[in-house]
Amino acid sequence: MGVKVGLVGAGAMGRKHLRALATDARAEIVGVADAVEDAARAAAADAGAAACRDLDDLAALGVDAVFVTLPNVHHGRVVLAALDRGFHVFSEKPMATDLGEARAIRDRVRRGRAVYQMGFNRRWAPAYRFLRRHIDAGFAPYSANVRINDGDMLTPSWYTDVAVSGGFMYDTAVHLVDLIAWLIGPVESVSAIGRRSCYPDYDDIALLLRCRGDRPVALTTCGHASWAAPQERMELYGDHALLASEDLDRVRLTTRDLPHAEWQRLPAPDELTLWGYVDEDRAFIDACLEGTPPPVGVEDAFHSVAVLAAAYENIRRGGAPVPVSRD
Ligand SMILES: NC(=O)c1ccc[n+]([C@@H]2O[C@H](COP(=O)([O-])OP(=O)(O)OC[C@H]3O[C@@H](n4cnc5c(N)ncnc54)[C@H](O)[C@@H]3O)[C@@H](O)[C@H]2O)c1
Fold first, then answer.
1. Residue 74: which domain range?
2. What is the arrangement of strands in the sheet containing 65-68, beginning at the earlier edge strand?
3. DSSP category for residue 61
4. Separation of 141 CA from ligand 1 center, angstroms?
């Protein structure tokens, strides 16, 4: 028996998930919903599914699970409505653009039995898997230097509208906040400074994060850096050792004995796999079928929003580092 899947939000990301899900025979895509009829119709036709308007239409098709791939500000309301109907939910990031809504989702998921998985696809990208494997094998990161940039903030059209995006960092930096927590440890407090340089939103931001075990991490993010590679880079500092990644497939481990170790490029069969979408969707279907906790769950999702809420508070008000809410 498979999982009947519906999707809400047939834009760029929704269509990627439809393509990733099509590689998993256990996922039956039954409906695709979008506020724009043509968008729903075109994506549904490509997926061999019915075009829908909303969750009501998807419910009528008997879905077991929904993918929420709407612009950020709509995630909270639609996810809560889907959980109310008893559907399993895969939500694109961010969990919500507001800590109160994130709390409501977390509490609902804690109370119920539905699977809730957050779209932190980078955890499945080859470079970050490599870092994680070395940490599991004993590499202890004491501190880190991390950055992620965008070349511009022109796509999607709502990216620079804070009322829809929640803020620049809810789009891309949120992925690195999750990776820092996953690879180094949960973030306990945040200092941040930001500048509005090329767009109306803060688009140049530097964060200082204190992770569990008093591990300092510097994270910078820029929304207008040109698209020159690497867009993202992580350097983890261990005991006379450096574990580094660039973008999704370049990695290097240097040590006192091997200071000139070469960069390695890790292979992926295609772009959807390189970005982690194929494996994250497969993991979600596993969790739906087996009733097991998803690999990126509601507590991870909540933590990332709590870190960003603390960061934006510190950007706006200045002053001492802001503790990251745990409840
Ligand atoms: N994990 C990743 O790598 C990644 C990459 C890109 C985008 N995303 C996330 O995916 C989500 C979608 O981003 P996108 O780039 O596909 O945006 P998009 O603008 O291309 O698509 C959004 C779609 O939602 C539809 N829509 C808007 N409001 C709606 C509503 N109220 N009800 C129904 N449909 C509505 C739009 O018509 C559009 O088709 C965002 O949350 C974004 O942060 C994740």
1. 3-121+277-296
2. 50-52, 27-33, 3-8, 65-68, 88-91, 116-118
3. T
4. 35
Residue written as token pair 């279907």:
285
261 CB less than 6 Å from ligand 1?
Answer: no
99 and 217 fall within a common domain: no
Q: What would the pLDDT profile of 194-209 be if each residue is shown by its tens digit? A: 999 999 999 999 999 9
Q: Total domain count for the chain?
A: 2
Give residue 76's Cα distance to chain centre: 15
Nearest atom within ligand 1 for CA of residue 39: 39
Instruction: Judge whether 128 and 250 are in contact, CB under 8 Å.
Output: no
Peptide bond between residue 94 and the one before it cis (omega within 30 degrees of 0): yes
Task: Looking at the structure, tell me whether residues 63 and 195 fall in a common domain.
Answer: no
Task: Say yes or no: 202 and 285 in one domain.
Answer: no
What is the CATH number for 21?
3.40.50.720
13 lines ligand 1 (CB under 6 A): yes
Instruction: Quick: pLDDT tens for 67-112.
Output: 999 999 999 999 999 999 999 999 999 999 999 999 999 999 999 9
Q: pTM for the whole thing? A: 0.97
10 lies in the same domain as 127? no
